[in-house]
Amino acid sequence: MKKYRKKYDYAFKERAVLLSYERSSTSLARLEKELGLYTAALSSWRREYEKFNSRDGKANDYLKVNLERQRILELEKKTKKSELKFEILKNASRYLNEKRELLFQFMAANEKKYPIRLMCEVLGQNRTTYRLWKKPINTEKKERKNAIKKEIKRIFFEFRQRYGCQRIAIVLQNAGYQISYSTVYEYMKELGLASPIKKN
Q1: Domain count of the chain?
Q2: Membrane-spanning residues where (predicted)?
Q3: 141 or 86: whose pLDDT is higher?
Q4: 19-54 residue pLDDT tens
Q5: Do residues 118 and 81 lie in contact, with contact meaning Cβ atoms separated by under 8 Å?
Q6: Which DSSP helix (H) or strand (E) runs through 143?
Q7: Residue 52: inside a domain, yes or no?
């Protein structure tokens, strides 16, 4: 199982680096263990921290600069999200007053372009409902159809492929199934079954 490295904020990193300087007599490996850090974390953080030292070494803008960068990135992320929301709403607007089926079809067609979570949020849809639509659970009707098709296949081969839809329908009706000849014909087509054509 893949392990994910824990993320630490800039304030924590700065405090850890400053502590490592204060406790210079303690090895970095031991301090990392005490703080529950991953191996070589402090060495990496120190190198990054020292890039922001002033020329005289009396000041360090590590935290200030990185917090500003973080703020800018967060603003850019929010702006991008807002733009995506507008784009989704604009492209899906024609389906908003239509059946939900059409809206779900739009979402399925755009999954590679937009995050599912964001589309559901913008279009006011439930993610679980959408997922169930994509992978529908067998309904009673589908289960009944599958059972009948299985029975049709059994009868077809039991009578050595000589029974067509009418005779199979009669066998099914006699067994208690309420089914028409035309339905048996459609199911046989779906199963790829056909009785040989008799030559005159």
Answers
A1: 3
A2: none
A3: 86
A4: 999 999 999 999 999 999 999 999 999 999 999 998
A5: yes
A6: helix 140-158
A7: yes
3's tokens: 């392990």
In a shared domain, residues 95 and 124: yes
> Token pair for residue 99?
């059946």
Under the banding of pLDDT at 50, 70 and 90, the label for residue 121 is very high
Please name the residue that has the structure tokens 């239509």.
Answer: 98
What pLDDT is stored for residue 200 in this prediction?
Answer: 46
Which single residue is written with the structure tokens 């339905």?
A: 183
Domain of residue 89 covers 79-134
Amino acid at site 67? L
Evaluate whether residue 154 is within a structural domain: yes
Q: Which residues of 7-23 are buried (b: 16+ CB within 10 A; e: fewer)?
A: eeebeebbebbeebeee
Q: What is the mean pLDDT of the chain?
A: 89
Q: Which of 94, 119, 134 is the last residue of a domain?
A: 134
Give the separation between CA 133 and CA 3, rounded to whole angstroms.
33
Q: How confident is the model at residue 7 (pLDDT cuts 50, 70, 90)?
A: confident
Ramachandran quadrant class, 37 (left: phi over 0; alpha: psi -120 to 50; beta: rest): beta
Q: What are phi and psi of 60, to 5 degrees?
A: -145, 125
